[in-house]
Design brief:
The structure holds 2 protein chains of 2 kinds. Chain A contains 4 helices and 2 strands. By secondary structure, chain A is mainly α. In chain A, helix 1 (about 5-20) packs across helix 4. Chain B is built from 48 helices and 54 strands. The radius of gyration of chain B is 44 Å and the shape is elongated. Chain B starts with 14 loop residues before the first strand and ends in a 5-residue tail after the last strand. The chains are: A mainly alpha, B alpha+beta. At the A-B interface, helix 2 and helix 3 of A face strand 18 and helix 30 of B.
Chain lengths: ~90, ~1700
């Protein structure tokens, strides 16, 4: 994969997160960037992850993505995810 | 009063702890200590400088008298004591034991804590018993130093240098004693150890026994034990008991080091595998003890009860310093016996736990012996040691242990121990009943019938052991004081009538906060909670700045007219139409699945009701052999075991129900009411209880309910009636897709829970679920297997209904008092009890229709859904279900936000939604101070002074060293090549026996070699003078350095409070290494431009240094890096970045030009009125020092882009940065030491070798709003001796950019104060002033003030004194520096060192400081007074004195002007910078070019300038209004003769006579004169050789004859003759001495000293055509003036004379 593709996934992820958080009234101190994490930085709650999943499916027109690979590590749910992690997942599976 | 109350026969009454106070590392209050403990603050630090760590420190650590660690628990800045407050004469303090004063302070605070004097004490029966060891301390060290060391040093000195005179030794003796604290009759009580207790008894008139006890490290508990005996025997009614070890000087450390008892890793890790020793701690503490019945009768607050203290000695142990387990066991057993306590009843042991492995091992084996292991059973006793946090306080070590344990019992918390994560396997703790507490946990009470009990171990050297047993004091906890006062967030709710008023309120609060000194968020929040109004804005803030930021954001959002609500997840909530006004409020209770380990743990510590619900459940589970605390609040080491237990159904349901009930009770406390309730799955139990369907069960009943529930769940499990199943959650799967997949399963898979559109839970057998999953694959969403494994909420449950029914029966359900909804029916519960019961059973066989239920509740008017349970899952379901409909969903707890912050968020949302609640309950118990926002913020309390606890050490100041050395080596100073620095270095052998250190920075340090002077031109007297002058300058400079450094250290030691004190000599490493560190070496070849400063090598020392260091990369090698664009703020000076490693290193350059940097034109040396004709003529622009600090600040902020500069410190200015002509290239080199400290050097990059301008250190930290209240008192001396306008018209050269002083109000030798404003002139061409990091103009204004102390000159004398900044200790900046409004500047001065050392504060009208300069040291430089006045005044002050009288009798002299230069600085001008200064003051534009075209030597330049002054001064006397010197033009006429013009175009012949720096000038109007010649000769004899060349024999004869007639020496007349010839030549254009022989003296009138001079005839004949025709003959008159001989020749136009 070329570097520009990686950047593209990061950019797409950022756009989806911006869309999801657009009506939160929250003055996010930092712009959403590659190191932004969805729980610590954006305050994602449980269903927000489902919304993100749905957003990804809609954006890429795919309903078969193995999100469990993204959300679970060694049989445990991850505590948080960064934009980069999400983008890497997308790059691998799209 | 209690006099008549006899307790003689009470033998074992509980003793109540009714008051406590302490000062221990990191904490001077109970709340701070408790907060530190709970939040695991490690208060072990490096020793502060006044402890003198480097003196004792030897990392090799083998020597007996050295310490291998600098770490410990130090009081540092906390150790404050105000003598007047406690009735101690201030003179008694410094030479006394510091313990006495801190103990007195603690006693006062402990009594205050005990309610005294409102709760009275029986003074005659109050005792003071304090544990105290005998260690070296400041008091006794003073005695020792005075009585022994001084004379001992003198003796040794005498032996080494027997030639020393008695006077010298007396001097030395006096110098040694000078630095020691006083020791006299007044200080003597301060040396009597027992007076520690006596002072307290004396202060309060306590007449019970008062004494100190010493039982080594067991002292405090032994003191308590004595107190208990006094109380139980009835001899006393109250006892103050405690321990004290306020100082731990180096010698004590060295002793423990020798025992290898101190940790080399710098961490105290009790019972840990990493334990390698203890560290010593400082501190003191006192508790107030009373008999329990007395305390209860008097209404005392009781922290805890002391049941017993057991004491035992080791008997015949292996050694006096080795612990013995038998002795320890005996002490513990005795305490248990006396207390009647079984080991089973103890839940917490505060161990002695020093971290010394032998001690730890012995202690654990003693504990295990007493608390016998129970194989297979759970660990039930928490073990820890507060020493891990504060160090080992030796005799006072029982103080933090006792307070920690009492507060643990008071708060029902198991407090953590640091560094104990990995326990030492050898201790066998896993097999014991003990577990290490590494995180604070609620102390659940489940094991025993007694109240919570704790034990404390204290074991001392010498074999003395004590053990105390404490017990919680029962009773109503809800109103108890909570010492964990600081929450991670606070909820600030503003209330107002309407939206508009709310907006105004947000703004007004924000403004109030901006003015407040140190407002506490807690106080603000609690004060706002009292506000009333229909419109509510809720803000959850983490800090005051965060609050201000959010208030601003809220205000902006409120201003948007279309906005109807604010729901900012960062914590801002508001609703235009609060939902609860028209809608209903519901409580929702989640079921199992939402539990997680440590849930609500923080809430348990703050709200007893939450913990009490867990207590009840713990008691219930204990009946079934389960430990709730182990699986709910596990220590990190046991987490995985706990998590799997927490998944068991009976544990899960019990834990969730307890949590929900706790939160429900918390809601009740907050008075949040609901009109509807719903429970999700097993959450229905909590909803039934909360709705009142079970009545109002007592605690005992509740325990039974839980027990029954556990039994029911166990029965279900055992019965196996409910089939195993797999559960999955289907998230985000489209409804139709899911329905289709389920339908295809033919009923083998069912939806057990319909939570919300985006989440449903499917249940089925493994195979069937797998099929469904396969069908769903690729259809979208997220399907996750759950950890649950039973087919609840399906028809498959029905066979087990009987078991559930039995449990439901036991609940005896009745009618709910609150509308209760069922998820089985998505409807309200039926009314009849029987139907309620049926439905409660049936729901386990029915799907959970939560989505439909919520929709139904919404239809029934519910708008606010409060989730009363852990994690917040239901809230997400509700949001998803009601998406797009107006509603509020409020989880009280979520798993990824800390409990207290989420509570604030929830309460904030409740308030914003219009739900009534009692916000006050969030603050009660935390003792908030209520603020009155209608009044201006209160002034910050002045802090008490820091009490010194270090040992007094000898030191000499630089003068003493110099004087003493001089007396022995008188010649050393006068030799030009002698290494000057030797005598200036402070670290001679007298101070420190060790060798000099390597500079801390390995690479770029300046060599610490003596500054050597290039030996050139040494045979030239003027060269020699220059070199000597340079040496003197350097020496003066270095001295300034030293004295400033010493003063800085002195203040530091005195905690910044004292301004005077013994001088302390500072070792190099104590002073920040930056001074020599960030020197950038700029290689010669890389510098294209030489700024014509070839002469600067002589006058600039740093260059000589820079030349020695090897070249580094040239700028070209770095490549050009553009400033980072993502840096939000473009900084004015960051032009070209040569190197940037964020967070580490920055080198940048910029061009300094007048055009880009117009402020330079307002900062010129000297004066501003250089020319009345040419406004572009500037005096010498000099970079303001403050702007240099700005460069440093910009560098630091570039390294750390999101930081702010709070302090610039350790600034050393080494060179002037002038910008006289073209652009200068400046390089700034910054290195980060940490993310809060950057060292910066500023260099002139266009000077060969890179000339250092300044170095300093920038501290990055959030800037405070203000710097708190003024430190410097107003002096009120006298009004200033000048008018306000004089300041910038006469004294200060600053232009409008920096003119901030308005009017002086106070003036005197000790300080100055003035009214001031912030100058607003734009400083930069390309940037607004806001782009600067520092408030430059204001700081510059502040720095102008101290220098004016010397502006009270009387206009006499030749010199005045001006001050140049040399070093600045510290510059502090606050936000308010950028505000507006009037300011005052108050400056305190000290000129005793010969330097001007000042502290300056810029103050707001309310007395708060906005900028603070500390230890600004300015070199006082003598400067010619006339030049100073010339510069400062529009109307010119002459720089020359008329010589008209001297030349009386010379024909035509009345038409001429003659003068001697007296005010231009003379030889001062050989210094390059002064020559630059004066040149720019007096030269016209063309003259400047002329100057720059010459390659003058320093002396030649000085002479040239002086001659210009002479000619100009002579000329300008002719003008009606004397012009400025720069407006008098000096030129050469066609014949090459100098001439001058006034601005009026009048022209003059001019001539200058000069001998070295003696300069006279003459001007004669050209309309009258064709020429003027002036010549000067020294009076001292010339060499004969010259005379022969100048005079022929007839001239010699005439001169000798004239000498004889005048009765003067031949030599003088020879010189008259020579001068006469020269003057004639000058008047006729020729000035070459070689031609003097071609001039003939025709005759001499000896009486008139008149020479008739003419050219030799032959000369006329052969004169070149270009030479003008010399006059035929002219008279030259000679005069004597001021050791010089002068000759004047005037050539009139018409030969009339």
């Amino acid at each position: 994969m070329s570097a520009s593709t990686t950047d593209q996934y990061v950019q797409n992820t950022i756009e989806m997160l911006q869309e999801l958080t657009s009506d939160w009234d929250t003055d996010l101190d930092a712009q959403i960037g590659p190191t932004t994490s969805i729980v610590n930085d954006l305050g994602f709650e449980s269903l927000d992850v489902v919304y993100l999943v749905t957003a990804i499916e809609q954006r890429y027109g795919r309903r078969d993505l193995p999100f469990e690979q993204l959300l679970m590590v060694d049989g445990r749910y991850v505590d948080d995810l960064t934009v980069t992690q999400i983008a890497a997942f997308l790059q691998k599976n799209i | 009063m209690t006099q008549n109350f006899s307790h003689a026969d009470v033998s074992h009454e509980d003793i109540a702890l009714v008051g406590m106070a302490c000062m221990v590392p990191g904490a001077d209050t109970l709340e701070r200590l408790w907060q530190n403990i709970v939040h695991k603050v490690d208060c072990v630090t490096d020793a502060p400088p006044d402890w003198n760590p480097d003196f004792y420190y030897d990392p090799a650590g083998s020597a007996v008298d050295r310490t291998y660690t600098k770490k410990g628990g130090f009081l540092g800045d906390l150790c404050r004591f105000s003598p007047s407050k406690y009735g101690v004469p201030p003179t008694n303090i410094d030479g006394a034991e510091p313990d006495q004063f801190i103990a007195l302070r603690c006693a006062c605070e402990a009594l205050d804590d005990a309610g005294f004097p409102e709760v009275p004490l029986n003074r005659s029966k109050t005792s003071v018993i304090i544990g105290r060891g005998i260690f070296v301390n400041r008091g006794w060290a003073t005695v020792f130093q005075r009585a022994i060391a001084v004379e001992n040093i003198i003796q040794l000195l005498q032996q080494i240098e027997p030639e020393r005179s008695a006077e010298e030794l007396d001097f030395m003796r006096a110098e040694l004693k000078k630095v020691l604290p006083p020791c006299n009759a007044d200080t003597f009580p301060g040396l009597v150890h027992n007076a520690l207790a006596g002072r307290i008894a004396n202060r309060f008139d306590f007449m019970g026994p008062s004494y100190t006890v010493d039982a080594a490290c067991a002292s405090t508990l032994i003191a308590v034990e004595h107190g208990i005996r006094e109380l139980r025997a009835g001899r006393c009614d109250a006892v103050l008991a405690g321990g004290s070890q306020v100082s731990t000087p180096g010698p004590i450390h060295t002793m423990f080091c020798h025992l290898q008892a101190l940790s080399r890793s710098g961490r105290i890790a009790p019972f840990s595998a990493a334990a390698n020793g203890t560290l010593l701690g400082q501190g003191c503490g006192i508790v107030v003890l009373k008999r329990r019945t007395d305390a209860e009768r008097d209404g005392n607050r009781i922290y805890a009860l002391i049941k017993a203290v057991g004491v035992a000695s080791d008997g015949k142990g292996v050694g006096l310093l080795a612990p013995r387990t038998e002795g320890q066991q005996l002490a513990i057993s005795r305490a248990h016996k006396e207390a009647g306590a079984s080991p089973d009843s103890i839940g917490l042991i505060e161990a002695h736990g020093t971290g010394i492995p032998l001690g730890d091992t012995t202690e654990v084996s003693s504990l295990r012996a007493v608390f016998a292991d129970r194989p297979g059973s759970n660990s039930t006793i928490a073990l820890g040691s507060v020493k891990s946090m504060v160090g080992h306080l030796l005799p006072a070590s029982g103080v933090p242990s006792l307070i920690k344990t009492a507060l643990a019992l008071h708060h029902r918390v198991l407090p953590p121990t640091l560094h104990a994560e990995q326990s030492n396997d050898n201790l066998g703790l896993n097999e014991s009943r003990f577990f290490l507490v590494t995180e604070a946990r609620p102390w659940l009470h489940d094991g025993t019938d007694t109240n919570r009990r704790a034990g404390i171990n204290s074991f001392g050297f010498g074999g003395i052991n004590a053990h105390a047993v404490l017990e919680e004091y029962p009773g109503d906890e809800s109103r108890r004081e909570n010492f964990e006062r600081e929450w991670p967030s606070e909820l600030v709710v503003l209330s107002a009538e309407n939206r508009k008023a709310l907006l105004a309120r947000a703004i007004s609060l924000s403004e109030w906060l901006a003015k407040a000194a140190e407002p506490r968020l807690l106080d603000i929040a609690a004060s706002c909670a009292a506000e009333r109004g229909a419109s509510r804005l809720a803000i959850v803030a983490q800090s005051v700045p965060d609050l201000i930021k959010k208030l601003g954001r809220a205000a902006r959002l409120l201003e948007q007219p279309e906005r109807t609500k604010i729901h900012d997840r960062s914590g801002i909530f508001w609703q235009a139409e609060p939902l609860a006004r028209s809608g209903r409020v519901a409580h929702m209770f989640p079921g199992e699945g939402c539990q997680y380990t440590n849930m609500l743990s923080d809430l348990c510590r703050q709200f007893p009701e939450v913990r009490q619900e867990f207590d009840l459940t713990a008691r219930a589970l204990a009946q079934r052999g389960k430990s709730l605390s182990r699986f709910l609040f596990p220590q990190p080491a046991a987490i995985s075991e706990a998590e799997s237990e927490l998944l068991q159904m009976e544990s899960a349901v019990a834990a969730v129900t307890a949590a929900s009930r706790g939160l429900w009770r918390l809601l009740a406390r907050l008075d949040v009411k609901a009109s509807a309730m719903v429970g999700h799955s097993s959450g229905e139990y909590a909803s039934l209880l909360a709705s009142g369907a079970c009545g109002e069960p007592s605690p005992e009943r509740l325990v039974q309910v839980v027990v029954d529930g556990v039994d029911s769940a166990s029965a279900l499990q055992r019965s196996d009636l409910v089939p195993q199943a797999v559960l999955i959650s289907a998230g985000g799967v489209p409804q139709a897709v899911l329905d289709e997949a389920v339908a295809a399963g033919n009923g083998k898979v069912v939806i057990a829970m319909d939570n919300c559109p985006n989440q449903r839970i499917l249940v089925g057998a493994d195979e069937a679920i797998t099929e469904v999953l396969a069908r769903l694959h690729g259809k979208g969403g997220l399907c996750q297997r759950l950890e649950l494994n039973r087919a609840y909420h399906t028809a498959a449950f029905r066979p087990a209904s009987a078991i559930v029914a039995k449990y439901i029966d036991s609940l005896e359900l009745g009618q709910p008092q609150i509308e209760l909804w069922s998820c089985a029916t998505a409807d309200r519960f039926p009314v009849e009890s029987e139907k309620i019961r049926e439905l409660a059973v049936e729901q386990w066989s029915s799907p959970v229709r939560f989505r439909e239920t919520i929709l139904a509740m919404y239809d029934a008017g519910v708008r606010v859904f409060v989730e009363v349970g852990p994690r917040g899952n239901l809230s997400a379901f509700v949001s998803d279900t009601l998406a797009g409909k107006p509603h509020a969903v409020i989880p009280l707890n979520v798993s990824n936000v800390d409990d207290l912050t989420q509570l604030c968020v929830a309460c904030g949302m409740l308030a914003a939604s219009g739900v009534e609640l009692s916000l006050n309950e969030l603050f009660v118990g935390r003792s908030p101070r209520i603020l009155d926002f209608s009044k201006p913020p209160a002034r910050a309390l002045k802090r008490e002074r820091v009490l010194r606890t270090d040992l007094p050490m000898f030191s000499f100041d630089e003068n003493a060293i110099s004087r003493f050395r001089k007396s022995k080596l008188p010649a050393a100073m006068d030799q030009p090549g002698a290494p000057l620095h030797r005598e200036l270095r402070p670290d001679g052998p007298l101070h420190n026996g060790r060798t000099e250190r390597e500079p801390s920075n390995g690479q770029n340090h300046a060599p610490s070699e003596p500054i050597s002077i290039p030996a050139r031109g040494s045979n030239s007297s003027s060269r020699y003078a220059v070199v000597k002058e340079f040496q003197a300058t350097m020496q003066q400079f270095l001295r300034t350095q030293e004295s400033v450094t010493a003063a800085y250290a002195r203040r530091k030691q005195a905690g910044g409070a004292a301004t005077a004190g013994p001088p302390i000599v500072v070792r190099p490493e104590s002073f920040p290494s930056v001074i020599s560190a960030p020197r950038v070496n700029i290689p010669r070849e890389s510098l294209a431009r030489d700024n014509n400063q070839a002469t600067s090598a002589i006058t600039n020392g740093s260059r000589a240094l820079a030349d020695r260091v090897s070249p580094q990369k040239s700028p070209a090698d770095f490549g050009r890096i553009e400033p980072a664009e993502n840096n939000a703020r473009k900084l004015p000076f960051i032009e070209t970045i040569l190197e940037l490693k964020l967070g580490e290193r920055l080198i940048f350059e910029f061009e300094l030009t007048i055009a880009k940097h117009p402020f330079l034109a307002d900062h010129t040396f000297f004066g501003r009125w250089i020319s009345n004709e040419d406004s572009t003529l500037l005096p010498l622009p000099v970079m303001p020092m403050v702007m240099t600090l700005e460069l440093m600040a910009e560098a630091a902020v570039t390294l750390f882009p999101n930081s702010t500069v709070s302090v610039v410190r350790d600034i050393r200015a080494t060179g002037w940065l002038t910008c006289p002509r073209q652009a200068r290239r400046i390089r700034v080199d910054a290195k980060a030491e940490s993310d809060s400290l950057v060292h910066v050097g500023v260099f002139a990059a266009d000077v060969d070798g890179g000339e250092e301008i300044a170095t300093g250190a920038v501290e990055l930290a959030p800037r405070p709003k203000t710097l708190g209240y003024a430190m410097l008192p107003q002096l009120k001396q006298s009004p200033p001796p000048w008018a306000p306008e004089d300041v910038y018209d006469h004294f200060l050269y600053h232009g409008p950019s920096f003119q901030g002083i308005i009017e002086f109000q106070d003036f005197g030798p000790r300080g100055l104060s003035c009214r001031a404003e912030r100058p607003t002139v734009r400083l930069l061409r390309d940037f607004p002033n806001e782009s600067l990091i520092l408030p430059v103009a204001l700081i510059d204004t502040a720095s102008q003030v101290p220098g004016l102390v010397n502006a009270n000159y009387k206009a006499v004398g030749k010199w005045t004194v001006i001050a140049f900044p040399n070093t600045i200790g510290r510059l502090e900046i606050s936000e308010a520096a950028w505000g507006d409004g009037p300011l005052t500047i108050n400056s305190h001065l000290d000129q005793s060192s010969g330097k001007l050392i000042s502290d300056t504060e810029v103050l707001l009208p309310n007395g708060e400081a906005v900028v603070r300069y500390l230890n600004r040291a300015e070199e006082l430089v003598e400067f010619p007074l006339p030049l100073y006045l010339y510069a400062g005044q529009r109307n010119s002050v002459p720089l020359a004195t008329s010589l008209s009288n001297t030349f009386q009798g010379v024909p035509g002299i009345e038409y001429c002007q003659l003068c001697e230069v007296t005010g231009a600085g003379d030889r001062l001008l050989i210094k390059n910078h002064w020559a630059q200064v004066v040149g720019n003051m007096i030269l016209s534009a063309t003259e400047r070019s002329e100057r720059d075209g010459h390659k003058f030597s320093p002396v030649a330049l000085a002479q040239w300038l002086l001659s210009r002054v002479a000619a100009k001064e002579a000329t300008r006397q002719f003008a009606a209004v004397a012009p400025k010197l720069a407006d008098v033009v000096i030129e050469h006429d066609a014949s090459g003769k100098p001439c001058s013009h006034l601005p009026s175009k009048e022209s003059f012949c001019v001539s200058v006579g000069q001998q070295l720096f003696f300069t006279v000038g003459g001007a004669a109007p050209t309309e009258r004169f064709a020429g003027i010649g002036l010549s000067a000769e020294p009076l001292r004899p010339r060499e004969n050789a010259q005379r022969d060349a100048v005079f022929n024999s007839s001239e010699l004869a005439m001169l000798q004859a004239a000498a004889a007639r005048a009765n003067e020496s031949d030599d003088m007349w020879l010189r008259f003759g020579r001068a006469a010839k020269e003057a004639f030549c000058k008047a006729n254009s020729s000035t070459s001495p070689a031609e003097l022989s071609r001039i003939e003296i025709g005759s001499i009138d000896a009486g008139k000293r008149c020479f008739s001079v003419q050219p030799v005839v032959a000369l006329v004949a052969h004169s070149p055509a270009s030479m003008p025709e010399p006059a035929d003959v002219a008279n030259v008159y000679c005069r004597i003036h001021d050791q010089h001989l002068l000759a004047i020749c005037l050539i009139p136009r018409e030969s009339t004379y």
